[in-house]
Amino acid sequence: QVQLVESGGGLVQAGDSLRLSCVASGRTFSYYTMGWFRQGPGQEREFVAAIIWTGGNTRYADSMKGRFAISRDTSKNTVYLQMNSLKPEDTGVYYCAAKSGWTLSPTAEYVYWGQGTQVTVTS
Known about the structure:
Layout: E1 3-7, E2 11-13, E3 18-25, E4 32-39, E5 46-52, E6 58-60, E7 68-73, E8 78-83, E9 92-100, E10 112-113, E11 117-122
Parallel strand pairs: 2-11
Antiparallel strand pairs: 1-3, 3-8, 4-5, 4-9, 5-6, 7-8, 9-10, 9-11
């Protein structure tokens, strides 16, 4: 019922920046929380950041604070993840996710997922 499409990933060097985008369509609820997750090769998927669609409240994983920023453009149904000072350990597939309501807990269950966009950071 909700489709999410990520874009903006690529190959960059350590210290560079990237901005990921996620376009949402086909929503069935008025209130959503949008999140970004990532999964490195052979690793578990981990929480990166989340934003409440209506109010713009945000939450970040502790290791991302100060480097990453989540935002949204309500007119375009798009959520962004600005990533600065990228490190090789940031390499992985980044997923956009959505759920109803406005909880920002990193452990909350997201029910809608995009296919992911690859981010590769070299030394």
